[in-house]
# Entry
Amino acid sequence: MKIAILGGDGFVGWPTTLHLSAQGHEVHVVDNLSRRWIDTELGVQSLTPMDSIQERCRIWRETTGRAIRFHLLDIAQDYERLKGWLAENRPDAIVHLAEQRAAPYSMKSDRHKVYTVQNNTNGTHNLLAALVETGIDAHLVHLGTMGVYGYSSVGAPIPEGYLDIEIETPNGKKGQEILYPTRPGSVYHMTKSLDQILFQFYAQNDGLRITDLHQGIVWGTHTTETRLHDQLVNRFDYDGDYGTVLNRFLIQAAIDHPLTVHGTGGQTRAFIHIQDSVRCIDLALGDAPKTGDRVRIFNQMTETHRVRDLAELVAKLTGAKVAYLPNPRKEAAENDLVVRNDQFLSLGLDPTTLAEGLLEEVVDVARRYAHRIDRSRVPAVSAWTKELGAKIDRDPEGKALKSAS
# Structure
């Protein structure tokens, strides 16, 4: 297939690009490189040293003989260019990863909230409108988030996207299927909830074929393809805005930094290893819905864990200390999370679960590049409200200069 990967330079996008190219597909990366500019804004860099996207593509071709084509394009701002690119290249499938993906970044300030909505929502709608206008019958696979469901305890497994309900009518109860009610916990999660509504409309109105992957928190470093050459390494974020919780724990352990658990640590989250994330996208591409079908929704996760349990696991493995800090997020202190993921299991996914070997792999990577870590960027300091911001511990190691008075 000819596959366009929107956001193919990113954390999930790059290993997905390599995997699909290795499978023999003609892969085109479409990216505005905004994630690299955000690194500059935040004053922090990927733990792993990243070459330019052009150099990455060159190394891949030199290593495997396969070509990856890169196109610099902002799908949220350049609608006419996007429409023209689609009309010229006519991909068979599109993997949409071109969204600002960090909840803390989306809550840093009003400017970051506006940027996240404009980038994510405009980008998704521009893509859908352009597909209709060009008449391209491409299968669209979108990377969403488990966070659209919210993290309240409902006492029942969360189904894959849809909920069967009964409504009281004058003639008795009537069954209906609805999208599982969203309860986004950040502006970022809200944009993913808005994506769902856009997908539902364009699938029913224009017959677009869409798969929406509600993904858990990604952890890990390497995939089969990124191991082929040092310069193919994936980006690895450790900072308080973009670093995912388990990866951050492993980084903190590697540099003898306290494992920072916010609140009680009773927040239960869904997780997936980066290799499984890539594999799930591949499986979804091979199981496309037909024209006129409802949006196909998968829960893309393999296991759930409480944050404090993860911290204790990493502490036991590495000898690190655990520090409990005020929570910058507006969320329940404790929640349960039971999630259905039957569809990917039925398609043949063999889940990668937390294992000491894989955890040690991340710690080894962290130790290798420890000289690149800016310890001041490790704390999570982006708060959901001004009141929570006033309670944030910005110096969990107690290294800040103290007043002499």
Remarks:
- Residues 2-236+271-303+335-353 form a domain with the Rossmann fold fold (CATH 3.40.50.720).
- The chain has a mean pLDDT of 93.
- The radius of gyration is 21 Å.
- The chain has one domain: 2-236+271-303+335-353.
